[in-house]
Amino acid sequence: MNKNSLRRDFDSKPSKSRMISAMSLEGKTAVVTGFGGGLGSAIAVSLAQAGCAIVGTDWSRSETVQENMNKVKEIGQKEPLFFECDLMNRDAIGEMCRSILSKIPDGVDILVNNAGIFERFFFEEKPVESWDKEIAINLTAPFLLSKSLCPPMKKKEWGRIINISSVVGLVAYTKTVGYCASKTGLIGLTRETIRESCPTKRLSTTKEIADYVVFLCSPAANNMTGQATPIDGGYTMV
């Protein structure tokens, strides 16, 4: 990068609207699994505040789900979509994805694989049924959802798949054998999906790095510390 290009970056007039536009998701549609849970509802609300249309999924249409749908509609003035789906049922996942794509022919732009389950047992006492449940919901479901909803993202050359793992995916804890295995596997799934989905592997612009610095200084990053987070288009992930 030459001196003149750097000068243009620094000479650009800073404004609040520039930072807001960097975080804007106007015109995008996001699928959030585990929509009825505390984290899922918080993610959906924040995405709606950024301008996203929301598609929520959960195993049933509970009162909490309806409350979350009302919150999202109030924020974005857009009627959210909701689909009941048992994430342990592979056929149900496939049917739901087909329904989503029938409602949104161009495909969704963002998939947040947030739904998860955690059942505490010592390794030797872990029932196979509990193991199967955690692997199905925490790992197989994100794989199937990503597989179904990713192709339109690639066609549009814009998309985001966000897999919510856990610190237990990095560091083992007692009585978390199924959860640990599934969340560690989810990290591996994320890495391999990136490798096959054309990582950019380009140098980041000064503006992209500057926006990330602002994010790290903002309240949104209050609980991030001691992290090495490359902004390299997936280069170090593959």
- How large is the radius of gyration? 19 Å
Arrangement of strands in the largest sheet: 3-2-1-4-5
Helix content: 40-55%
Average pLDDT score:
89
Largest sheet: 5 strands, parallel
Determine the N-to-C terminus distance.
25 Å
Overall spatial form: globular
What is the tally of beta strands?
Answer: 5
**Uncertain regions: pLDDT < 50 for 5+ in a row?**
1-12
Q: Which series of helices and strands comes N to C?
A: HHEHEHEHEHEHH
| Class by SSE composition | alpha/beta
Strand content: 5-15%
Number of helices: 8
Give the arrangement of secondary structure elements:
Blueprint: H1 3-11, H2 16-22, E1 29-33, H3 38-49, E2 53-58, H4 63-76, E3 81-84, H5 90-103, E4 110-113, H6 128-156, E5 160-163, H7 177-196, H8 206-217
Parallel strand pairs: 1-2, 1-4, 2-3, 4-5
Enzyme class: oxidoreductase
Protein name: 3-oxoacyl-[acyl-carrier-protein] reductase
EC number: 1.1.1.100
Molecular structure report:
- The protein is an alpha/beta fold.
- Helices cover 49% and strands 10% of the residues.
- The protein has helices spanning 3-11, 16-22, 38-49, 63-76, 90-103, 128-156, 177-196, 206-217; strands at 29-33, 53-58, 81-84, 110-113, 160-163.
- It has a five-stranded parallel sheet with strand order 3-2-1-4-5, sandwiched between helices.
- Strand 1 (29-33), helix 3 (38-49) and strand 2 (53-58) form a beta-alpha-beta unit.
- Helix 3 (38-49) packs parallel to helix 4, helix 5 packs parallel to helix 6 (128-156) and helix 6 runs parallel beside helix 7 (177-196).
- The longest helix is centred in the middle third of the chain and has 29 residues, at 128-156.
- The protein starts with a helix and ends in a 21-residue tail after the last helix.
- 26% of the residues are buried.
